[in-house]
């Protein structure tokens, strides 16, 4: 096809996207509003709005006459139809599948979570897939939405994903999640499926709806069982040549760190070690008699009650995390580092020690905060990933999710 033949199609697509971009972020708009904010002519704006109304992306509201104006036709008003479809955001953890569904304005309509049956590390691919599809079916059913309403699916996985959205082989847990999630699982539903590393999605979520809003240079650290970091530089998510940006797998080389163990794992390990050594501690009372394995929450609870052993454990964890943050600060210079994931609420107890240690470890210590998005942060980022896809491709989609000709 010649370039001259494609020009009207490209121009029409550009105009559609310009009007949609304004409507998605600006609420109800009149034709004059859209003209002012897009620079398009009145004829073009009205033609585009009529086209979008026919497709179902836009609703026309009741006309509203300005006060004091007695003559003339009242201005037509339009708004983006957030109910024209929905997106799914999935967090595929080692042991749990979490699914969120949201409308096209990002309003969450439903949430569901389901644990992998039995010992999660030993689950077969079929067992894992059954849990994934079952959780998705449940969240759609609970929200009262048909499968045809889904326009895109974002999925976060706890392993490396390359810049093209493919699981990178040869990494820890990569085989666990290489399940044909993009090609086989929902083939009959024809959903566009986008994969991303879970920490990267946490970074998208934090910048969208968390403490990182408006921050251009941001690092979000999932710090529960295993440390992983999503990096945003100048507003862009970093992947690296093979998807490994932010994968802190070389922490065994950092003095005073030694592994990718996260806050929950360290608290559990050192709390269990304290009991094995017979140290007098409130942790023993909280765990109960006859139990030798300590959960992280008991360590944090004991520390909140000023138990010396628990406080020593948290101090040790905080100093270790401070070293990890110092490495990020030295090489990547983020403005903000956010501790996120299921341990975020507890991690607030670590901030005083972290902030006290950082100036001695790096010349430019970043600001450190704790996420308020809870354990749904990855699923929230997956929603953002799916919404980005829909917003970019909306001119060539219909509310039913099928491709639409733009010509």
UniProtKB/TrEMBL annotation:
Source organism superkingdom: Bacteria
Pfam families reported in the protein's UniProt record: MarR_2 (PF12802), ROK (PF00480)
Domain annotation HTH marR-type: ranges: 22-59
Gene3D superfamilies: 3.30.420.40, Winged helix-like DNA-binding domain superfamily/Winged helix DNA-binding domain
Stored InterPro entries: ATPase_NBD, HTH_MarR-typ, ROK, WH-like_DNA-bd_sf, WH_DNA-bd_sf
Family, as annotated: Belongs to the ROK (NagC/XylR) family.
PANTHER family: BIFUNCTIONAL UDP-N-ACETYLGLUCOSAMINE 2-EPIMERASE_N-ACETYLMANNOSAMINE KINASE, ROK (REPRESSOR, ORF, KINASE) FAMILY
Identification of the protein by name: Transcriptional regulator
């Amino acid at each position: 096809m010649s370039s001259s033949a494609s020009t009207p199609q490209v121009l029409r697509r550009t105009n559609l996207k310009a009007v949609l971009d304004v409507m998605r972020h600006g609420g109800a708009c009149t034709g004059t509003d859209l003209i002012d904010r897009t620079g398009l002519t009145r004829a073009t704006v009205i033609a585009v709005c009529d086209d979008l109304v026919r497709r179902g992306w836009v609703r026309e509201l009741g006309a509203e006459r300005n006060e004091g104006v007695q003559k003339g036709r009242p201005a037509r008003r339009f708004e983006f139809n957030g109910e024209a479809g929905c997106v799914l955001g999935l967090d595929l953890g080692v042991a749990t599948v979490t699914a969120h569904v949201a409308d096209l304005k990002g309003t969450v309509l439903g949430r569901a979570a389901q644990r992998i049956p039995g010992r999660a590390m030993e689950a077969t691919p079929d067992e894992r897939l059954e849990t994934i599809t079952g959780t998705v079916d449940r969240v759609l059913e609970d929200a009262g939405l048909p499968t045809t309403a889904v326009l895109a699916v974002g999925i976060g996985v706890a392993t490396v994903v390359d810049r093209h959205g493919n699981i990178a082989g040869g990494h820890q847990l990569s085989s666990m999640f290489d399940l044909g999630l993009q090609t086989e699982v929902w083939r009959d539903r024809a959903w566009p499926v986008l994969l991303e590393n879970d920490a990267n999605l946490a970074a998208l979520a934090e910048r969208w709806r968390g403490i990182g809003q408006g921050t251009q240079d941001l690092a979000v650290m999932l710090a529960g069982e295993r440390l992983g970091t999503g990096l945003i530089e100048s507003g862009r998510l970093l992947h690296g040549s093979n998807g490994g940006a932010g994968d802190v797998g070389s922490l065994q080389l950092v003095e005073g760190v030694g592994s990718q163990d996260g806050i929950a794992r360290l608290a559990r390990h050192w709390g269990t070690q304290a009991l094995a050594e017979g140290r007098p501690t409130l942790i023993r009372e909280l765990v109960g008699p006859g139990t030798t394995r300590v959960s992280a929450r008991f360590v944090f609870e004991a520390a909140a009650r000023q138990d010396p052993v628990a406080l020593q454990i948290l101090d040790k964890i905080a100093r270790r995390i401070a070293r990890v943050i110092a490495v990020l600060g030295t090489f990547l210079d983020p403005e903000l580092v956010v501790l996120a994931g299921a341990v975020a609420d507890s991690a607030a107890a670590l901030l005083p020690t972290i902030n006290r240690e950082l100036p001695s470890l790096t010349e430019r210590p970043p600001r450190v905060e704790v996420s308020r998005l809870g354990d749904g942060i990855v699923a929230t980022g997956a929603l953002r990933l799916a919404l980005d896809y829909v917003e970019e491709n909306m001119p060539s989609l219909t509310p039913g999710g099928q491709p639409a000709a733009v010509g």
